[in-house]
Amino acid sequence: MAKVQAPRGTHDVLPAQEDARHALEEAAARILGAAGYERIETPMFEATDLFKRTVGESTDIVQKEMYTFEDGGGRSLTLRPEVTAPIARAYLEHGMHKLPQPVKLWYLSACFRYERAQAGRQRQFWQIGAEAIGAADPAVDAELITLLHRVLDEVGVEELELRISSLGTPATRASYRDRLQAHLRAHEDQLSEEVRGRIDLNPLRAFDSDHPGTVEVMKTAPLLLDELDADDAAHFAQVRELLDVADVAYVIDPTLVRGLDYYARTVFEFTSGALGAQSAVGGGGRYDGLVEQLGGPVTPGCGWAAGVERILLAAGERAAGSTQIDLYVAFEGEAQRTAAFAIATYARQAGRHAQLELAGRSMKGQLKAAARVGARFVVIVREDGTVLKDMDSGEQHDVDPAPDAVVAAVQRGMGSL
Ligand code: HAM
Q1: pLDDT, tens digit, for every residue of 372-403?
Q2: Residue 131 Cα: closest atom of ligand 1
Q3: Counted domains in the chain
Q4: Using omega within 30 degrees of 0 as the cis cutoff, is the peptide bond preceding 43 cis?
Q5: 181 within a domain of the structure (yes/no)
Q6: Does residue 385 sit in the same domain as residue 238?
Q7: DSSP state for residue 264 in the 8-state scheme
Q8: Closest Cα partner for 321 from 91, 10, 16?
Q9: Ligand 1 atom nearest residue 287's Cα
Q10: In this structure, are 284 and 338 located in the same domain?
């Protein structure tokens, strides 16, 4: 019979990969927690309209990447392709505007996009993200960028580059859009078919194209960054100044486009040279109109999300901090199993990482297994005596077989007593 496989673009997270993921989650929780961000979890599916209204009807995400379905009651639901819109919804729904502002939240959530699957691009992937809703201060933008930089740096993402830009207000963007469309129309014959087809819908995406003719046309295109109004330009200048203070290096990239429509003012993206074509590790920006688009009051907001799989790919070996096994409990003869079990149980109660032989291996096989899991000590329980072996030095000595005595000897050996 044909085997059933995981759907394309999804993957199992096997035990060998869990340590690295856990280390990332721990780093994010610690770094974001220390900066006052609290964890939130939103549902895996939402009303389809939530994403249409915020991410934008003309974006790739809404046009072709959403997993949308009708439930038994005929409602259109969508597996979340991102978490910012759900968080803005939750902010409104739970009256978080009554809390001290900004409300600072972080998440680690599965997201779903029907994209062409390749290395670093999946149909189910995980995002770590942070959102600060309710403050327009440029320090919010700079704080968020600095925190993402710290998370990526701490887990060992290499060859990081940060690009930043500002998109101004929707009004600035609207008049800029007219000028850009005029420029594209004037050079329509040189553009790729895809870009030509999107002049009306999404002319900004032309900056993303790698089609040679389009690239040439975009070299002389007007830049939004040159047309910011005074407030937006001042806001952007302050974000840059604060990033300088935080010692976070960046490149100003006026062509930076993000694939979501809700942004205003600051946008940013971290890429890693350690990744292939899908080089964006994380990105985000300010979304001052988002809560309003959901029927709420005018509320500024800013945030980012970073792909867990991409972070781990870019961090390579460095992300993998594995759990140290303190004690491997080996035993010889069925009669010793109970004593061995008691030692392992006691060691775990005492907070030690302990493993018990469970596969009926020979003593040689047990010692090999202990070495393979990287055990620091092995206790060998035999009828004629119990021995504690230090796997680092190779030294071994007799110990009292009582569980507390064995564990005390391990603690002493590890320098914690
Ligand atoms: P985004 O740039 O669409 O932004 O996604 C953020 C990150 O998620 C990307 O940089 C990438 O690392 C990861 N990612 C996206 N799609 C995939 C995929 N198909 N496979 C693997 N990883 C992927 C957002 O989602 C915004 N909500 C970010 C944000 C938060 N803006 C403000 N607040």
Answers
A1: 989 999 999 999 999 999 999 999 999 999 99
A2: 33
A3: 2
A4: no
A5: no
A6: no
A7: -
A8: 16
A9: 32
A10: no
**The amino acid at 115:** E
- Enclosing domain of residue 298: 15-168+228-318
Q: Return the residue whose CA atom lies nearest to atom 12 of ligand 1.
A: 307
CATH of the domain at 160: 3.30.930.10
State in Å: Cα 107 to ligand 1 middle: 13
Residue 114 scores a pLDDT above 90: yes
Token pair for 138: 């440029």
pLDDT class of 417 with cuts at 50, 70, 90: very low
The DSSP code sequence of 354-376 is EEE--S---HHHHHHHHHHTT-S
Task: Please report which helix (H) or strand (E) contains residue 309, including its range.
Answer: helix 308-315
CA pseudo-torsion sign 74, 296, 235, 248: negative
By residue count, the chain amounts to 417
- 198 is a domain residue: no
pLDDT in tens, 344-353: 999 999 999 9
The residue among 415, 409, 416 whose CA lies nearest residue 389 is 409
> Where residue 348 sits, what CATH number does that domain have?
3.40.50.800
Burial class, 212, CB count within 10 angstroms (exposed 0-12 / middle 13-18 / buried 19+):
exposed
Q: From the CA of 243, how far away is ligand 1's center (Å)? A: 22
What contacts 286, CB < 8 A, 6 or more positions away?
Answer: 141, 263, 264, 265, 266, 267, 300, 301, 302
Ligand 1 center to 179 CA (angstroms): 29
Asked if the model's pLDDT at residue 416 lies above 90, the reply is no
Cα end-to-end span (Å), the chain: 58
Contact 286, 139 (CB under 8 A): no
Are residues 332 and 300 part of one domain?
A: no
Question: Relative to the CA of 311, which ligand 1 atom is closest?
Answer: 12
Do residues 144 and 130 make contact, with C-beta atoms less than 8 angstroms apart? yes
Rounded to an integer, what distance in angstroms lies between the CA atom of residue 376 and that of residue 380?
13
Pocket of ligand 1 (CB under 6 A): 82-84, 113, 115, 121-122, 125, 127, 129, 131, 259-260, 280-285, 287, 303-307, 309-310
Choose the final residue of a domain: 318, 339, 372. Answer: 318
In a domain, 9, yes or no: no
- Report if residue 196 sits inside a domain: no
Boundary-marking domain end, from 293, 318, 343: 318
